[in-house]
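Below is how a single chain appears once it has passed through the pipeline. First comes the sequence as given, then the structure the pipeline wrote out for it. We keep one example in the README because the format questions we get most often are answered faster by looking than by reading.
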Amino acid sequence: LYEFMFVMIARVRNMRVFLHHHSYSYLNRYSLLTHLLACSSGRSANHILLSPRMKFLFRSLYGACNVYHVSNSAFLDLEASRRLLSNYDSIALGFIGNVTAEKGIFIFLDLVAALSGQFCSVRGKIAGPCQDSKTFQLLNERLAGLPQIEYLGPQYGAAKDSFYQSIDILIFPSLYFNEAEPVVLLEAISRGIPVVAYAVGSIPDVITSDCGILIEPREPFVPPAINAISSFISDQTLLQKASSASSRRFELLRSESQKEFDSLQCKIVY
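Resulting structure:
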């Protein structure tokens, strides 16, 4: 409704309209308010989404004409790099993001606990803010019995770079219904870090089978994740191949998105 007022002012003044969409809240299910916004913005309005899947859903639900997709990778000042794993005797699994049940923190703990029972070399690292006292308390209670997992708290700048350098695989078991295109996945694959994640939102448009493992949201996360990570541990070349593929995937995503963004900029300026 707030955006609707700006759109109507723009239409009255004969201005061009560009709307950037970055949530699945009205793509996972139809929204009458979003339909109102799309209709009021006019057929000449430009709608910018994050991925091909978002673009398809928006067109299907709201019948918009000028729809583009520009991945968040276009706005990341990162150079893709291929990592050479230096220590195959120890595998570090990482979790970064809001430390909440909805983002899958307790699934991550279950996964590391199960894997470290099979492979003593498996460690876990957690980075991110814990947003409520109850979750923080439950996390600390679980960590007391899991000395192989380290909670670092929020990490920014050089500290975040150091976190990524210290992990081999990123785990992203998000249960968040409106998950779109998490920037942490792009940050990970740009550094050659494979990802194991739930296939929610636009994540399948980011993570392909050669640079990670996607698990259907209807399935329990831990069993298939254990199988995938066990394969990486058992065959060291698989992890290195996935690492190289991750870097290449980021390069491709960013290259495609920057081209789309460049054409949009021309449309905005001229």
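The chain has a mean pLDDT of 92.

See the next section for the split statistics.
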